[in-house]
Design goal:
Blueprint: H1 2-23, H2 26-68, H3 73-87, H4 96-113, H5 115-118, H6 123-128, H7 146-170, H8 178-195, H9 200-235
């Protein structure tokens, strides 16, 4: 795991150091760094949205096959494979962007939690991580309330929007189990709790990243609606 994190965190550490050399403010550097990373991940969100839009189109046919071959799993698998091929649909298409994002997010956490471990060992960055920013006296130390609560609220909103997007795309709102519904509340609480022990720089990254995700989700919803309209026009 350390090797994998290092492979990802090292180049991200180079970018963080490169930005700091220009900005000379660690707090501003983390903000610009967050914006760059999130914008680089945006094409993956678009791809995921398109895949989920295709899922909503294929879903009725999938359910029809499942009802028809409910007692014949082997035939069902064959028919489902034929459906995917006919519709040119990859059921893993919605998962792939998330699988790509996860190691990047883990690498970012490792970098911002222990920046000097993955950055060039120079005196400049050694002092930079201890700079103050706004009300925070030392970005390497935890902010006990403001950033964690902001991160928790932003996470709750972004998570809820993601969940709604998935429900609308797959039509499985009624089938969603209690655990998934509870995660909408549990995950933000975990973020607040962990944020109170993480360095302020990491909490700042997560809070800003989730705020950006909210705006991404608003835009992605319009993209999804546009795809639905295009699909309806094709059927006509």
């Amino acid at each position: 795991m350390y090797t994998i994190l290092g492979v990802i965190a090292k180049p991200l550490g180079w970018l963080l150091g490169f930005l700091y050399n220009f900005l000379s403010d660690y707090g501003i550097t983390i903000i610009i760094f967050t914006i760059i990373v999130k914008m680089c991940l945006y094409p993956l969100y678009i791809k995921q949205t398109k895949s989920m839009a295709r899922m909503s189109e294929v879903q009725p046919k999938m359910l029809a096959l499942q009802r028809k071959y409910a007692n014949d799993k082997e035939t069902l698998n064959i028919k489902m494979a034929e459906l995917y091929k006919e519709e040119k649909f990859n059921p893993m298409g919605g998962c792939l962007p998330m699988l790509i994002q996860m190691p990047i997010i883990m690498g970012l956490f490792a970098l911002l939690r222990q920046p000097m471990e993955y950055m060039t060992n120079d005196d400049t960055m050694l002092f930079a991580v201890h700079e103050e920013f706004l009300w925070i006296m030392d970005l390497s130390q935890p902010d006990k309330w403001i950033l964690p609560i902001l991160a928790g609220i932003a996470t709750f909103i972004a998570f809820s929007m993601n969940q709604q997007q998935q429900e609308e795309a797959t039509g499985t709102a009624a089938q969603m189990n209690g655990m998934m519904k509870m995660m909408k509340y549990i995950f933000p609480i975990m973020i607040v709790w962990m944020g109170r022990s993480f360095p302020s720089g990491l909490a700042l990254y997560w809070a800003l990243g989730q705020i950006m995700q909210i705006f991404f989700n608003i835009h992605l919803k319009s993209v999804r609606n546009k795809l639905k309209e295009e699909s309806k026009k094709k059927k006509k």
